[in-house]
Amino acid sequence: MSVKIIWGVVLTTGKRWREMRRFSLMTLRNFGMGKRSIEDRIQEEARCLVEELRKTKSSPCDPTFILGCAPCNVICSIIFHSRFDYEDLRFLNFMRKLNESLEILSSPWIQVCNNFPVLIDYFPGSHKKFFKNVADMKQYFLEKIIEHQESLDMNSPRDLIDCFLIKMEEDNPETEFTIEALVNLVNDLFGAGTETTSTTLRYGLMLLLKHPEVTVKVQEEIDLVIGRHRSPCMQDKSSMPYTEAVLHEIQRYIDLIPTNVPHAVNCDTKFRNYFIPKGTTIITSLTSVLHDSKEFPNPEKFDPGHFLDKNGKFKKSDYFMPFSTGKRICAGEGLARMELFLFLTTILQNFHLKSVVDPKDLDTTPVSRGFASVPPAYQICFIPV
Description:
The structure is a single chain. The protein is mainly alpha-helical. It is 53% helix and 6% strand. The longest helix has 32 residues, at 179-210. Its cofactor is heme. Its main location: endoplasmic reticulum.
């Protein structure tokens, strides 16, 4: 099903995939991914996030929407060179569609449709709503692209859309750089760059509610390394092994994309006495490494110690691959890692987390586990420090 509607960079193959991935990585890098300018954007958005959380006035709230806005605005700044106000009605509708689409993709019905594609055309169901959401978002992206075309300065690109439009002008007639490809690329970047990070943050805060002793240790490290009077920065991360371990353990434990995205073998392949013909779609299990009991003792237990050595130093693991691995590893891995560190440390620098129920009664089991592991809804109080 996904193959029919998403083919910007995530599920393309051959020349188009090489061109789109090369362009995406180059443009993200030029607009600051891994550099100071992107860090500035995330820090600015983190401060906006804190202000929104203060507006809750320590009252119980569902953090889904607020935690979705922050990473969405970061990707907006890269693609559109602008951000939305958290109360913008169009933004609210946009975020609703993204959340709804992820829940649909992760539902049992979609797993049935993936196994029996003929159902898509003949049966009513949530997939119709999913297609409608994708069409609406693509129409919005197309409108933004047209606006960019009308104000484009070939010598001064403002964002990713400008860079793509300039590439279209420069390339040969058989170019992969078309308006259709741009719409799909933007759609991919939004879906991958917003929902994955926001869901990880939402799930992560729930785990911190469930394990207040972990939260206390992270906040102690924040006090020691960063203090209360400046924003966290990426340079701090190397001095915060426990926080780094917690971030890794959150991603390992939640196993956000259990079966990765579909791949295909590009030649006849023999694997463990199995013959896999060229072109065969394969599904890989990230769960099998993220929850490997030999690498991570008691893998079903949330334990930052999985990433700490006996001296309390951060310990890397070759089994940590929530962003996949190989040539098709997530193009936005660097951006996502930066966002998770800066958003989480900024929240914990400014707020104590309080559960509305006894932490022991919090159930962190995902409510659905299809394309993504979707955390259950919960209420949280952000108490200013």
